[in-house]
Specification:
Blueprint (H helix, E strand, L loop, with lengths): L6 H4 L21 H28 L4 H9 L18 H14 L1 H12 L1 H8 L2 H13 L4 E4 L15 E4 L3 E12 L6 E7 L7 E7 L5 H7 L13 E6 L10 E12 L3 E2 L5 H35 L3 E2 L2 E2 L4 H29 L5 H26 L9 H10 L8 H13 L5
Parallel strand pairs: 1-4
Antiparallel strand pairs: 2-3, 3-7, 4-5, 5-8, 6-7, 9-10
Helix pairs in contact: 2-4, 4-5, 4-9, 5-6, 5-9, 6-7, 6-9, 9-10, 9-11, 9-12, 10-11, 11-12, 11-13
């Protein structure tokens, strides 16, 4: 089939990575302050993160220096009150940060997500005023990193199947169990652990626990990730570290609880209310992973568009061939659709509306888009796209886990169908 693109246009290069992207049009979701923050975070990612992203991925090394810079810019406590050490911005600003960081590197975006949304969000939602005053300043400043211990070897999507048990011993609990695939498990010093205190989904409780960072020399060198004033929880240790396909700069490992002793003042919320706490966190987390996925897709599109305007084949820039042009058109259209879904769900959350369905839909669509877009980007780059000489190879690996974390695509389709029909499915 002959190309429908004018040959003159096809032989003129499209924008390069150094040129300005198209100006974003008006949006019902963004104020001027939002757009300024978007530009700030993206510029930060380009200047601070892009130079080290490839090497951090290759070495599977936690990026202490750039996390320190993120902390200095308030990115570890974006939406939390200034009175508690946060940046004092709104929820949409938080999702903007995840989106823009992921355009450059998903690992840094996930670190931002973990620090803002996991422990901190649960403490803000369910914690006492004393717990908020104790933990939020530590987490927002990065003086302590955080992890959420939910997933277990036999309990992933089905949180009600948790086998970690907390036994009431009067003034404290004794907890035994193992947590797998936990983001920041090793580097975290503040950990929220889900454990069973009764039967069924109403028998789950959240506990705040403390451990040492697994890399104290680096934490001390960079002045983040270590709060020595936190008393360590006896019996809580870090287990193994997994080597991952993607998100390789993020610490991901195992928490081991062997007769861990937790005082009762470290219960987060009401005993037996843990399941509801987890679900609220996961609903917000789905918007977060949708924003990360959107950023990965847009980053891959940015790279593919720039390359297509520079790469000559048979005397023409490959952007002038219909096969490439149609790939770019599809990517851009789906990214536009995903933006509306992600920021609509974010707007609902920010304004106190129900958003469970919209969060699930945004996460499902954006995560699967990230996989499609990165695959197409690798295809557009050709042979070099299969090497780590260009970032689309890393982006493709980073995209896959977005279809798994915070609810697999299969679980989300079940949840969406149940929300639409009101009929249980399985």
């Amino acid at each position: 089939m002959s190309s429908l693109i004018d040959v003159t246009a096809a032989t003129a290069p499209v924008r390069t990575p150094a040129s300005a992207p198209p100006v974003e049009g008006p949006s019902p979701y963004f104020t001027r302050e939002h757009l300024e923050y978007k530009e700030f975070v993206y510029d930060f990612a380009v200047s601070e993160i892009k130079p080290i992203a490839r090497e951090a991925d290759r070495q599977q090394k936690y990026p202490w220096a750039t996390v320190k810079r993120m902390a200095e810019e308030g990115m570890l406590g974006i939406s939390w009150p200034e009175s508690l050490g946060g940046r004092g911005l709104d929820a949409i600003s938080y999702f903007i940060a995840l989106h823009q960081l992921a355009r450059i590197d998903a690992s840094h975006s996930l670190i931002c997500s973990a620090q803002n949304n996991l422990d901190a969000a649960m403490i803000m939602d369910a914690g006492t005023e004393a717990q908020k005053a104790r933990y939020i300043p530590l987490l927002a400043s990065g003086r302590a990193l955080s992890a959420f211990g939910l997933t277990e070897p036999q309990a992933g999507s089905d949180a009600s199947a948790l086998e970690t048990v907390a036994e009431d011993r009067g003034d404290h609990y004794v907890i035994n169990g193992r947590k797998h695939y936990i983001t920041q498990a090793g580097v975290a010093e503040v950990v929220i652990v889900a454990a069973r205190t009764g039967e069924g989904s109403r028998g789950l409780t959240s506990f705040v626990m403390h451990k040492d960072c697994c890399d104290l020399p680096s934490a001390k060198e960079h002045g983040i990730g270590h709060a020595p004033e936190l008393e360590r929880t006896p019996g809580l240790t870090y287990g193994r570290t997994w080597e991952k396909m993607g998100w390789r700069a993020v610490n991901w490992g195992e928490l081991v609880l062997e007769n861990a002793i937790v005082p009762k003042e470290n219960v987060l919320g009401q005993v037996g209310a843990g399941y509801a706490n987890f679900l609220r966190t996961l609903d917000g987390g789905r918007i977060g992973i949708a924003a990360v996925s959107l950023g990965i897709a847009e980053g891959a599109y940015d790279e593919a568009l720039a390359y297509a305007g520079q790469r000559l084949a048979f005397g023409k820039y490959i952007a002038g061939y219909q096969g490439t042009a149609f790939h770019l058109a599809n990517m851009a259209t789906e990214i536009y659709a995903a933006k509306q879904m992600v920021y609509h769900a974010a707007w609902l959350k920010q304004n106190g509306h129900a958003y469970k369905l919209e969060a699930a839909q945004a996460k499902l669509f954006a995560s699967e888009l990230a996989m499609r877009a990165t695959t197409l980007a690798v295809q557009i780059f050709g042979g070099v796209g299969y090497t780590n000489e260009v970032p689309v190879e890393r982006m493709m690996r980073d995209a896959k886990v977005c279809e798994i974390g915070e609810g697999t695509s299969e679980i989300l389709r079940m949840l969406i169908a149940r929300q639409l029909t009101g009929i249980p499915n399985g």
